[in-house]
Amino acid sequence: MSGGFDTRRFKAMERAGFNRIAARYADGAHLRAELAQALLGAAALAPGQRVLDLASGPGLLAADAAHRVHPGGMVLATDIAEGMLAEGAKRISDSGIELLFSAADAEHLCLADASVDRVLAGLALFMFPHPERALSEMHRVLAPGGRVALSVWGDRDNVPLISRAQDCIARLLPKPKVARPSVFRFGNPALLQTILEDAGFTEVSITACDFTCSFDDAESYWQAFLDLAGGAAEALSRLPEATQQALRNEVAADLAQHPRADGRPGCTVPARALIATAVRTP
């Protein structure tokens, strides 16, 4: 990133935002369950494997992965937001799930070379200021023959789940002086493949995962967007209440384009993610 972009400030805002929404993010896991299962399936997990889950949040993917690599396996859930990790640890405390948590920056991992068999990164790569560094670290810590499995949002036209809210924000708020990394920046499969290959990965495979999310009303949709937005949610929370209400009103108007098929109140909003897998060759 360039043009005045401050990496440390960006990461601090993301950390604060995700710490703020930790519990709500975990509560909204059902909205992304189809995507999570598709990603875990693509990872080809098996008992005995060592797994690193990057930007793990409250360990939603990691907890499921832990079941799949039992017995004999190990899953390490990492994130820069320690509040997210604490929420995850609290939720599995009485579940019997064996899961390790550690605060870590995906661009600077404190793990030995070739120390894991799988790396997971669900809806994360686009959040890293320097994704090429994060991919280089993933490649470094994977054992030869190890696999990375990650998901990213598709192109913005196919992700109204996110773009509807973003469009309303763009219409009502001034353009930011310094642009944030776009959550859609890896929505082009060719670009995603190139950045993986540039990091040294081979056998790159990319598939689309289309799913929908239903909400009882516009307020529920807006809250779900905030519960995914991390640093953006932190910034929006600091706006005057009148501005926040104007945003909610604008969102409600736009969501009229996504009625539920059964005619009930509320909306059904589609989304597309890309799931990529790649291998570190010997």
From TrEMBL:
One annotated GO molecular function: methyltransferase activity
Pfam families: Methyltransf_25
InterPro entries reported in the protein's UniProt record: Methyltransf_25, SAM-dependent_MTases_sf
Keywords assigned by UniProt, alphabetized: Methyltransferase, Transferase
Domain Methyltransferase: 51-146
Gene Ontology terms: biological process: methylation
Matches recorded under CDD domains: AdoMet_MTases (cd02440)
Keyword Transferase in record: yes
Descriptive protein name: Methyltransferase
Species this chain originates from: Parazoarcus communis
The organism's taxonomic lineage, starting at the top: Bacteria, Pseudomonadati, Pseudomonadota, Betaproteobacteria, Rhodocyclales
